[in-house]
Amino acid sequence: MTGALERVLGAFLADPAEPRYGYDLMKAARLPSGTLYPLLARLERDKLVASAWETPQQEGQRPRKYYQLTAEGIRNARLELAHASARRQRAPARPGHPAPGSLG
Amino acid sequence: MRGERQLLRVGEYLVGRACQQLPPDTREERYREWAAELPAILHDAQVRPAPRRAVRMLGYAADTLRGTIMTPGMARGHIPRLFAAVDRYFPVIGLVVVAVDVWGVVQAPGNGLDYLQLAWSLLFVAYLIRKRVRPAGRVTALLGIGAILVLVAIGLWSAAQAPGDWVNDFLAALLLLPLLIGLPLAWWLRRLGARGRHAAPSGL
Most buried residue, A82, A96, B179, B201, by CB count within 10 Å? Predict the structure, then answer.
């Protein structure tokens, strides 16, 4: 799993029930549009994310497309993020950069 | 914000250009989705000052072009079309090179280098025909690339030997130009493709 995907999934999982639009996800995941949208397209293709158009509140307002993790997406995202976190914890600290709290 | 409408128009133009790369069935929807974010970025109260929002909006719009290239299953756009155009141009080059080499052999039948050049250019044309009929395997591709490189080397050497000979200069330029354009383009496309694959969810 790439760092970009990890950040997108993390942003979704912050509140899985809340639909998110592209710019909102860009800010939350700190990713540019050229990275985020291909990721969303892949997640949607794999049926891990579902999308829906909003109903415009005012006349002339352009509707936005909202994305939300599917039930399978939530399950997989939690699993993948847990794996990624476990991998990071298992990785030995680099020499010259001791883990926090390991000294003294 | 002053000039907001013009800025939005520039953003929409950039998004529109990016969406031109997409297949017709997804183009309209993607345009609607991406263009709808432009005013939201421009009015984002969390980002200050206003010029920063403008830069952010234009950056977003410009980066959608990268998004269209990286998105799976999307039609490959201008750059691959340019690459395909260069590829289409190769058979014409091959035929011109063969014609010039035959002409060179007829003009100076005793010159061994002309025969060698003709043999290599025929190999180059054979490679192009083989590539058209069936996708070239690794050995065929290496042979073809080898033939092209030898042709380029011979062409450059001939041009250096007789600096005033426009035929040699023309041949060298004809062989060198597509290589200078095609190789960096092929490298860049390969890199983009690899990045696109690495960005794919793993198991997700």
Answer: B201
Are B43 and B124 in a shared domain?
A: no
Top pLDDT among B38 and B119 is at B38
Note whether A64 contacts B204, CB cutoff 8 Å.
Answer: no
- B196 vs A contacts (CB less than 8 Å): 38
Kindly tell me if the per-residue pLDDT of B83 is higher than 90: no
Query: In chain A, what are the domain boundaries?
Result: 3-89
- pLDDT at residue B138 in the model: 62
Write the burial class of residue B144 (CB in 10 Å: 0-12 exposed, 13-18 middle, 19+ buried). buried
- A43 and B60 in contact by Cβ < 8 A? no
- The CA distance from B49 to B41, in Å, is 12
B203 within a domain of the structure (yes/no): no
The region that residue B202 occupies, defined by phi over 0 for left and psi between -120 and 50 for alpha, beta otherwise, is beta
Is this prediction's ipTM beyond 0.85? Answer: no
**Nearest-CB residue to A41 (from B61, B66, B71):** B71
Residues of A in contact with B194 (CB under 8 A): none
Contact A22 B65 (CB under 8 A): no
Residues B113 and B176 in one domain: yes
Write the single-letter amino acid at A102.
Answer: S
Range of the domain at B30: 4-75
Which of B75, B95, B118 represents a domain boundary (last residue)? B75
Domain A3-89 has CATH 1.10.10.10: yes
- pLDDT (0 to 100) of residue B15: 92
B96 within domain boundaries:
yes
